[in-house]
Amino acid sequence: MKLGPVVHGGLLVVALVVAYQSNTREKDSAPKHGTHAIWKLSDISAVVLESGKKRIRIERREDENGTYLWGEVARTKKVAPSKKAGPSDNDAGANDAAPVYETTVTTREFPVGEAGEKLMLQYQKLMALRKLGPIASDELERYNLHEKTLTLTAIGGGKSEHSLLLAGEKIYGGTDRYAFEVDSGNGFVLSGKLVQPLEGAEGGLSIREVHSYADEKVTSIAITTTAGDRVLVKNSATDERGEHVVWEYEETPGTSEAALASFVERVEKLRPTAYEPTLEPSSLVHIATLRYRDKGEGSLGYLELYRQLVSQQEPPKKAGARQQTQYFIKTERTRVLGKVGRLDADRVDQDLVELFGIAPPPAEPEPASPAEPEPGAPAEPEAAAPASAAGVPGAPPVATPPVATPPVAAPTAKPIVAPATKPAAKPPAPATKPPSVPDTATK
């Protein structure tokens, strides 16, 4: 019996087992950005990144639907005081007093998606690219940790806090930063891939999809409006375009309408541009609620659409600004109202009017015309006043009343002066010729 085939067969089995184990091994959901541990928390409830003018917080919250992540970005801005509010220039010591700046804080909130979940896992077990060892206070400047620094804080489940001091400037030639752990006094090099997502949290960590299910799982949509309840059923049809999805009213199967498919697509395109956690749905006009269901009639999610009429909005700060109807949505994933683009939402609103019979939105008022102060003739005296009283510092010798008449006589002076200059230009030419005639006669 030859041992060669047996040995090769055994090696093949071992290779297959190793390949299977490596492919089925459970992988970490969060990639590691380093091999040196900074801290390891059993649980994490929030991460905060602070600079002088910006504070970013990602925290874990909970409601009746479970736990979720929520983001908050607060920007601090100092506004110079108005000159009208301060002392006049004639007051003694007015210029000596230092101006008192007003501090304003604007906050934007948003639901956090899957990218935020992975980032929280990385901060729960924070790893560094390099460990620099202890850093004395007089050595902080060497690592740009003495000014314009950032503070990174991880808050554990038991409200325990662990902080890092981050260099405001990145390490030359890359995106990594020097870091200083306050508790241990050790220095580290932290990967820029851990800091950059937090710095751009509002755009990078916010949810991308307003629903948590796949679109292909939806088989029907129950729509509730002020005009009643109707159900749309998804089906498939084949024509010259090939096989495609169509939508039908439940009560009239087999009679699909292209307008219904367009309506569903337009609703799917609604995406919040800003979130309003303090705005209550009861303060708005409810247009429709769409409940998405799967094949077994199980609930997948919902979308509520609201209008905010001009009469429900605060008056515009800018004079003459036009106010328009605003639209908001709320889904099982946004949890709060989110403002959506007016153009897309207005088309959905019109579809609901035409396809489901709801009342159209009221007409929007036109902005006040800026040229309104001409109901009477007082505007003309105001226009004549600057001409009669020009207010020019050197104009006292010129009498203002006669100034009104010379402009009328000015046009007549031009035709008189023009003919006088033309004849005066011709005599010099003949004056040069007569002297030449006597010269030839003497010769």
List keywords for this structure.
about 450 residues; alpha+beta; nine-stranded antiparallel sheet; disordered C terminus
Tell me what the structure shows:
- With 443 residues, this protein is α+β, with helices and mostly antiparallel strands.
- Helices cover 27% and strands 31% of the residues.
- Among the domains are: 149 residues, no CATH class; 136 residues, no CATH class.
- It has a nine-stranded antiparallel sheet, with helices on one face.
- A hairpin with a 2-residue loop joins strand 12 and strand 13.
- The C terminus is likely disordered.
SSE order and pairing:
Layout: H1 3-24, E1 36-40, E2 44-50, E3 54-63, E4 66-79, E5 102-111, H2 114-124, E6 125-128, E7 130-134, E8 150-156, E9 161-166, E10 177-181, E11 186-190, H3 192-199, H4 201-204, E12 220-225, E13 228-239, E14 242-249, H5 258-268, E15 272-276, E16 285-293, E17 299-308, E18 326-331, E19 337-340, H6 342-356, H7 379-388, H8 400-403, H9 406-425, H10 428-442
Antiparallel strand pairs: 1-6, 2-3, 2-8, 3-4, 4-5, 7-11, 8-9, 9-10, 10-11, 12-13, 12-16, 13-14, 15-19, 16-17, 17-18, 18-19
Helix pairs in contact: 5-6
